[in-house]
Design brief:
Number of helices: 12
Structural class: mainly alpha
Radius of gyration: 22 Å
Shape: globular
Distance between the termini: 78 Å
Helix content: over 70%
Largest sheet: none
Length: 288
């Protein structure tokens, strides 16, 4: 715990807590729409943005946000017009993004493996004050949007046709989800890395679904699990000298397993205390 007295660990903790709140707040909509893996695809595109930043000697975080946003909006428009199926569009995103990223990073002056690894797997301890400012500003914007537009986004994710008939701006909301996903992925790459970012958006939601029923309570529980796993991941990784991003994801998975076990035990107790009632015999029996 003494490590938390150092400024770089304080910055790491602040960044992790922001992502721990914002990622599940967005992830619950992606899970509702069965787009749990879209974070992986956008993460690969964000790697291309990182390569652009390194090649042009500009901020890799900001260029990753820009490139990932363009990619996410493009996939959404392709999906909407029906020219390419959703899974094929994601596959194109996967392959093109990671190939472009590797090539651009290789062409940049700072093309060392360690520099590439910190974006693939996260490197919060190297987070600067400027990085925290970007993460904080964009993370708060995502969180506010997900909470303020919760009724409209819930209607969209539950039934897009119903949302369109109800007069909701479906295309605008779809693009908003795509953009906020891109933003969340790129700011979370400093926390858990581009290869693990989807886990922080999906696993807390999956854990919350085991013990909650309503959408609002599930969202709140997922955010609580996300921020708990992120904060604990920083502390635990500092104590046992492990990668913060991977530790955070493992703790989120532990929370999922714990929630699943608790839900199983609760259902067993309910069945034991309320045994099924035997069906009454029919008054009339028809013989063929």
């Amino acid at each position: 715990m003494e490590l938390l007295a150092y400024p770089f660990m304080q910055r790491a903790l602040i960044g992790a807590l922001i992502i721990g709140l914002a990622a599940p707040a967005l992830g619950i909509y992606l899970v509702q729409r069965r787009l749990s893996l879209i974070g992986d695809g956008i993460g690969h595109v964000a790697l291309t943005g990182v390569g652009v930043g390194l090649l042009t000697n500009s901020s890799p975080v900001l260029t990753a946000v820009l490139v990932a946003t363009i990619g996410a909006v493009g996939v959404e428009l392709i999906r909407e017009r029906g020219r390419t199926s959703g899974d094929l569009a994601l596959a194109l995103l996967f392959y093109g993004g990671i190939a472009g990223g590797v090539v651009l990073v290789g062409l940049s002056d700072d093309s060392s493996n360690s520099n590439l690894m910190q974006y693939l797997f996260g490197s919060l301890i190297t987070t600067s004050v400027q990085d925290i400012a970007v993460i904080g500003g964009l993370g708060v914007a995502v969180l506010v949007a997900m909470l303020a537009l919760r009724p409209a986004l819930f209607a969209l994710c539950n039934d897009e046709e119903y949302a369109r008939v109800s007069g909701l701006p479906v295309r605008t909301l779809n693009i908003l989800l795509a953009v906020t996903t891109a933003v969340t992925v790129t700011i979370a790459m400093r926390t858990v890395g581009l290869l693990l970012v989807s886990a922080l958006m999906v696993v807390p939601v999956a854990a919350a679904q085991q013990v909650t029923r309503g959408f609002r309570t599930t969202m709140s529980a997922a955010m609580l699990i996300g921020v708990g796993a992120a904060g604990a991941g920083i502390v635990v990784s500092a104590e046992i000298d492990t990668a913060p991003g991977a530790t955070t994801v493992l703790l989120a998975l532990v929370a999922f397993l714990g929630a699943t076990l608790a839900a199983t035990v609760r259902r067993a107790l309910v069945r034991r205390s309320h045994p099924p009632v035997a069906a009454e015999p029919p008054d009339v029996v028809l013989h063929g």
